[in-house]
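Re: that chain you flagged

S.,

Sorry for the slow reply, it's been a week of failed gels. I finally had a moment to sit down with the sequence you sent. For the record, here it is as I used it:
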Amino acid sequence: MNDVCLVNPSHGLSETFIPEDLIQDPTSGIWVCEVVLHAFIRLNNRLFNEWLEPLSLVSGYRSFIYQQKLFDKKIAFYQKQGMDETTAKIEAAKIVAVPGHSEHQLGLAIDVTTWSMRVLEDPLIISFGETPTGKWLLKNSYLEGFVLRYPKDKTHITHITYEPWHYRYVGIEVATVMKQKGLCLEEYIALNQG
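Prediction finished late last night. Pasting the structure tokens below so you have them in one place:
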């Protein structure tokens, strides 16, 4: 599996897919692919050098089974609000990836926040993108091979709502091209097929 593998609502992974090179972040205990952890550490070093608040990992690798639990929990939440099962599944899929269709299963996606936002009940909030760290990350994450996976202006292509906390490792070369051309991963792959 390469760093630019597309996983989205239309392109999934098997229930049994598990990355071979998972490693545990010693600070958070979260598992990610080894290349991601090293790039994440370098990214935090850059933030430190800019006198900005460092990033905290909130989520990394998720198994198919764990993603199923998250999806089912969101469905149950909507059903408690009075939605029927079909509508609840549709609404849940707008916020939580359907099992097998989450980039987290690749081990190449991370959800991040700042250390000060970790204390919030849900640290993954839109306002992260407006923090000095969030703004810096959007401009500079490509330097270590990360891209904002679900930008505001690409929801019509990704079919995922804007998530300023969700970054995907694609490697420095690909991330640089995506940044320079203003592409999301779907666009990059479409331009580079064949």
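What I noticed first: The chain has two domains: 22-62+102-191, 68-99.

Talk soon,
D.
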